[in-house]
C-alpha cells in the first residue's frame, strides 16, 4: 500500500465546512495582472495565489503555480513557503500530499484532508487508476504519436523501475531563427499521458526521445531555453499538468479536474498560431486509460 506524506503540524486550528467544489476563483483584471507580475518576479507565494479547483470534506485540488514547491526539500533549503502550508491555511486543518509536481510544473495538484483519504487516494495512483494529462513544449518535431517504455533509475536507491508514457503531437511550428548549426528552429506541443509516476518521468522521457522540454535546466537544451527567455519571456519549465480524472474513492463520482489557462503558454500559443489546450481542451480520443 502506498504511504502518503503527512505535512508538519498545522499552525492554525479549527476546520471549515465543505466548500462548493464547482466554485471558481474570481479576480478582477487588475488583481489578475498584479498576481501574475508578483509571481513572475518570484516573490513569496500566498494562499490567495492558489486557485481551488475542487474541495469536499476529504479532498482538495489546487492549480499549482510554476515555481511553488509541493513540500520542503533539502535541495531548496532557502524556500520558506510551500504548497502544503498554503493549502493548510485555506482549509485551516492538516493536509496530506498524495502525489508530486516538480517545482517548475504548474497545474492540477491533489491533497487529502485526513490520513485515511490520503492512503486511499495514494492507492489510486499506485494502481494506475488516475488518468493524468500533461502538455509540454518540446524541441523538434516528434512523431505524430508514440509510446515510450524506458525504465528510469531512482535517485535514492539507483534501482531501475518501469516507466511508460504515451504521447500525441498536437501542434508544430518552424521558425526562421538559427540556433547552433541549424538555420531554423522547430518546436512542438505534446500531449503526454504518464502511466507510471517516476521522478522527473516526463522530462526524462522527452529527453530520451531527443525532444527535451523547453525550460528544463537539467534534461533540456540550454540554447533553446535561452531563446525562449529572450524572445518570449518564458522563464519557466514548459510543462503543464492540465487534467486529472479519477473516480472519487468515497462517493464513486468521476472527478474531472482541469487547470486554468497559463499566461506563458497562452503567449506562446498566440505567437506560434497554436490552439491553447488549457483554454480550449482537446476532448477527442486520448492515448491514456482512465475511469
Helix content range: 10-25%
Q: Give the overall silhouette.
A: globular
Subunit arrangement of the protein:
single chain
Tell me the domain tally: 2
CATH class of the largest domain: Alpha Beta
What is the N-to-C order of secondary-structure elements (H for helix, E for strand)?
A: EHEEHEEHEEEEEEHHEEH
The overall pLDDT, averaged over residues, is 85
What name goes with the CATH superfamily of the largest domain? Answer: Pseudouridine synthase
What is the helix tally?
6
What class would the helix/strand composition place it in?
Answer: alpha+beta
CATH architecture of the largest domain: 2-Layer Sandwich
Low-pLDDT windows of residues? 1-24, 285-291
Rg result: 19 Å
What is the beta-strand fraction?
25-35%
Largest sheet: 11 strands, mixed
How many β-strand runs? 13
CATH topology of the largest domain: Pseudouridine synthase
The N- to C-terminal Cα distance equals 20 Å
Jot down its keywords.
Pseudouridine synthase; 26% strand; 21% helix; alpha+beta; two-stranded antiparallel ribbon; 11-stranded mixed sheet; 6 helices; globular; 291 residues
Amino acid at each position: 500500500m502506498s504511504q502518503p506524506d503527512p505535512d508538519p503540524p498545522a499552525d492554525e486550528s479549527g476546520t471549515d465546512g465543505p466548500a462548493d467544489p464547482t466554485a471558481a476563483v474570481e479576480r478582477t483584471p487588475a488583481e489578475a495582472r498584479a498576481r501574475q507580475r508578483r509571481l513572475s518576479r518570484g516573490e513569496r507565494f500566498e494562499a490567495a495565489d492558489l486557485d481551488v479547483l475542487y474541495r469536499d470534506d476529504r479532498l482538495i485540488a489546487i492549480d499549482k503555480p510554476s515555481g511553488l514547491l509541493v513540500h520542503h526539500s533539502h535541495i531548496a533549503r532557502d524556500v520558506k513557503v510551500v504548497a502544503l502550508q498554503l493549502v493548510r491555511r485555506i482549509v485551516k486543518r492538516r493536509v496530506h500530499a498524495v502525489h508530486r509536481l516538480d517545482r517548475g510544473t504548474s497545474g492540477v495538484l491533489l491533497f487529502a484532508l485526513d490520513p485515511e483519504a490520503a492512503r486511499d487516494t495514494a492507492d489510486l495512483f499506485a494502481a494506475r487508476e488516475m488518468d493524468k494529462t500533461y502538455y509540454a513544449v518540446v524541441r523538434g518535431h516528434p512523431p505524430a504519436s508514440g509510446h515510450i517504455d524506458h525504465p528510469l533509475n531512482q535517485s535514492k536507491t539507483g534501482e531501475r523501475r518501469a516507466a511508460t508514457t504515451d504521447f500525441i503531437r498536437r501542434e508544430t511550428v518552424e521558425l526562421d531563427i538559427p540556433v547552433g548549426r541549424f538555420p531554423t528552429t522547430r518546436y512542438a506541443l505534446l500531449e503526454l499521458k504518464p502511466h507510471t509516476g517516476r521522478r522527473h518521468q516526463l522530462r526524462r522521457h522527452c529527453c530520451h526521445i531527443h525532444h527535451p522540454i523547453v525550460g528544463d535546466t537539467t534534461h533540456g537544451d540550454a540554447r533553446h531555453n535561452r531563446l525562449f527567455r529572450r524572445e518570449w519571456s518564458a522563464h519557466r519549465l514548459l510543462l503543464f499538468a492540465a487534467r486529472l480524472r479519477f473516480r472519487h474513492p468515497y462517493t464513486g463520482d468521476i472527478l474531472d479536474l482541469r487547470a486554468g489557462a497559463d499566461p506563458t503558454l497562452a503567449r506562446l500559443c498566440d505567437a506560434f498560431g497554436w490552439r491553447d489546450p488549457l483554454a480550449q481542451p482537446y476532448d477527442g480520443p486520448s492515448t491514456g486509460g482512465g475511469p
